[in-house]
C-alpha cells in the first residue's frame, strides 16, 4: 500500500487507463496547461500531449456534446466539469444524448463516456456553486452514478467507470481532493454498483456516501463509547443501488439511519427508505430516519452553513432515536 491524496488517485486512474487504451482522452476547462482546477490532472499534458489532454473554452454544452459524439465514434472520453454546478449548462447532452442514445439507436451506439468533477457544497462558495446533483442524474435511465469517499475507492471506481461501455457520472468533492488514504500499489478495479461495509456493527445501520460519510464515522466513534454499535455502509454507487447490501445489513441491525448531503425532497435516501419499507418492513424495529441538508438554498455565511449541513451530532441523535434512547 501507498498513501496518496484523493486528487493523486484520480490522476493515477486516468493516466493508467490512458496508457492502456489510446482511445481514452481527457477534456475540460483547465485540465491541461493548468494541470486541472484541483490539480487532478497534474503532469498528464506532459505525458500524453495536447491531443489527449485538451483544454476547452468555457462551454460545457459544447465540449459535452463533442464528447458524446466522440464516444459514438469509438473513443472513450473523460469530460471534466470544474464543478457539477456547471454541468447544468451541458445537461441536455448528458440527459438527452448520452443517456438515451443506446436505446434510441436500437443498441447500435454505446456511449462509453465519463463525466467527472466535484459536487455538493465546498465551503463558502454560495448557493450557485454548492448543490448536490447525484439524485438528479440517478433519476435518468441510462446513466450510472458514482460518488467515492476516499482515495482507494476513487481510483478503483474511476478505472471501472472509464472501462464501462455506458455513460457514467463520477462525482467528487472539492473538500476531498487533499484527503490522504492508502491505495494498493498494483493494478486493481472496484466494480460499479457494489456498496461496502466500512465498519461492522450490530445495533443500527448507517448508510451514507461521498464526503459527508465522514460525519457518520465520527458519530459511530462517539456512539461506541456508549456501547451502541453502528454498521456504516458506503454506497459508493447510487445508480445502480446495492439493495442486497442494504437489506442484508438492516435485517441484522433492524434499524436504519441514512445520511445524505442533499435537499430532503426526492433524494437517494428517499428511495432507500421506500425500498427498505417495501421489501423488508417486518425487519424494522423503528421508523427509518433520513438526515439531509436544510430545505433552503445553500447559505454563504459560515454560521448558517454549519446549521445547513448535516453533521455527526445529527447522526448521534438519530441513532439514539431509533434505539429509543
What would the principal axes of the Cα set say about the shape?
A: globular
**Class derived from helix and strand content:** alpha/beta
Q: How many extended strands? A: 14
Intertermini distance = 41 Å
The order of strands across the largest sheet is 3-2-4-5-7-6-12
The portion of residues assigned to helices is 25-40%
Indicate the mean pLDDT.
Answer: 97
The description of the largest β-sheet is: 7 strands, mixed
Note the beta-strand portion.
15-25%
Radius of gyration, rounded?
20 Å
Explain this structure:
The protein is 36% helix and 18% strand. It is built from twelve helices and 14 strands.
Key phrases:
single chain, 325 residues, alpha/beta, 7-stranded mixed sheet, 5-stranded mixed sheet, globular
Short account of what is shown:
This protein has 325 residues and is an alpha/beta fold. Helices cover 36% and strands 18% of the residues. It is built from twelve helices and 14 strands.
Describe how the helices and strands are arranged.
Elements: E1 2-5, H1 6-20, E2 24-28, H2 44-48, E3 53-55, H3 60-72, E4 76-80, H4 91-98, H5 101-104, E5 114-118, H6 134-138, E6 144-146, H7 151-163, E7 168-172, E8 180-183, E9 196-199, E10 204-208, H8 213-224, E11 230-234, E12 237-239, H9 243-253, E13 256-259, H10 268-279, E14 289-291, H11 302-308, H12 312-322
Parallel strand pairs: 2-3, 2-4, 4-5, 5-7, 6-7, 10-11, 10-13, 13-14
Antiparallel strand pairs: 1-8, 6-12, 9-11
